[in-house]
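Researcher: I'd like a candidate sequence for this fold, 392 residues long. If you have to choose between options at a position, lean toward the conservative one.
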């Protein structure tokens, strides 16, 4: 069994080892500082005798180092190096996740973790329910104070029958009976069962911020965060974006959430009115008879796309043809047909191309657009002529 240096020293990244076995690109060492991934944290990368280590993982009890194109042999003594910048970023990220979650849980005691992901490119924790931005703000204030307080981050091994285990965030069903229980403590504010690699003091995190939260479907909500310099850069970028928004709106910083909420409400109301107006215009339009086929051609100022699509489908279902144009900053065009003589995809593509636009879809329903909103009349005329020609 490989001696796992990373379990006792996350800061050792250069070491010497003996090659135990080699099978193609897969190398097993007698000792390793390479973390094989786990607990939501991705594996380390680095080099063995200057050959690139691209992946590290468990295979049974062995730790496999994937070294493409290696020339290693059993018994070789090799100098190994873990990518330190990547390793430290992952250590910061994993410790930061512990600190962030325990801080969020103080704001929402019923919060539980569904999934964790820590990599150089992305760091997030999926929790079982949404949190308000005020709760997140308060949690970040607590977490960053803990960073300033420079709390110790320690790891201990606990037995299953230890009465103090009830104080630990742990999912015992995921830990094998013969597997040791590794518990990471952040000062006296958090105890969590974890086999990952962590920093020794919270000051090493420097700073933590949440830069977005998104739905994770049935699992809940993904809280994305950043640590250290990346967190400082993200906080600066978000602050500038917020200031630009505030300047555009023309309100005080403290009034901006309410102002945006009011604007959102007004926009939703405008959309409802636009949809209603579009329906009224479309319902009052009368189709023309072209060789026995009803053809509806309408230009709708600021037309609602859903209303246009519904009207087009209604005409199509009756065997007719609908050529509808919505005028906004650009032109949106819908062409639908229940008559096989009219190939919507071909007609729309050809017509819109002539006006610098483009479209696509199916023979019975296609959509597209034209950049120049001033030529709505020309576009609808061209569509009518092409449809009429097809129906001859």
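Model: Candidate sequence:
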């Amino acid at each position: 069994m490989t001696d796992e240096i990373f379990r006792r020293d996350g800061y050792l990244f250069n070491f010497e080892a003996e090659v135990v076995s080699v099978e193609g690109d897969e190398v097993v060492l007698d000792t390793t500082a390479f973390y094989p991934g786990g607990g939501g944290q991705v594996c380390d990368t680095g080099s063995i005798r200057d050959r690139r280590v691209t992946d590290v993982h468990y295979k049974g009890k062995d730790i496999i180092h994937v070294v493409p194109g290696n020339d290693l042999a059993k018994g070789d003594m090799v100098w190994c190096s873990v990518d330190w910048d990547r390793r430290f970023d992952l250590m910061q990220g994993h410790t930061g996740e512990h600190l962030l979650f325990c801080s969020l849980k103080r704001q929402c005691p019923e919060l539980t973790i569904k999934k964790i992901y820590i990599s150089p490119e992305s760091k997030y924790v999926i929790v079982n329910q949404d949190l308000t931005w005020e709760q997140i703000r308060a949690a970040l204030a607590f977490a960053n104070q803990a960073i300033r307080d420079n709390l110790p981050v320690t790891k201990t091994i606990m037995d299953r029958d230890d009465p103090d285990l009830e104080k630990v965030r742990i999912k015992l069903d995921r830990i094998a009976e013969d597997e040791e229980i590794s518990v990471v403590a952040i000062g006296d504010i958090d105890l969590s069962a974890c086999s990952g690699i962590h920093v020794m003091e919270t000051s090493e995190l420097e700073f933590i911020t949440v830069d977005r939260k998104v739905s994770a479907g049935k699992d809940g909500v993904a809280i994305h965060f950043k640590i250290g310099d990346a967190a400082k850069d993200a906080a600066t970028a978000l602050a500038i974006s917020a200031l630009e928004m505030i300047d555009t709106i023309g309100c005080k910083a403290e009034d901006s959430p309410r102002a945006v909420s009011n604007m959102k409400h007004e926009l939703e109301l405008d959309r409802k009115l636009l949809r209603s107006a579009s329906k009224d215009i479309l319902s009052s339009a009368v189709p023309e008879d072209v060789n026995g086929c009803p053809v509806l051609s309408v230009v709708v100022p600021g037309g609602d796309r859903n209303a246009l699509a519904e009207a087009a489908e209604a005409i199509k279902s009756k065997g007719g043809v609908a050529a509808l144009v919505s005028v906004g900053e650009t032109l949106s065009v819908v062409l639908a047909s229940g008559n096989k003589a009219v190939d919507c995809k071909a007609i729309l593509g050809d017509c819109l191309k002539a006006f610098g636009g483009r479209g696509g879809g199916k023979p019975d329903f296609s959509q597209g657009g034209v950049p120049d909103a001033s030529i709505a009349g020309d576009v609808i005329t061209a569509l009518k002529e092409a449809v009429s020609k097809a129906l001859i």
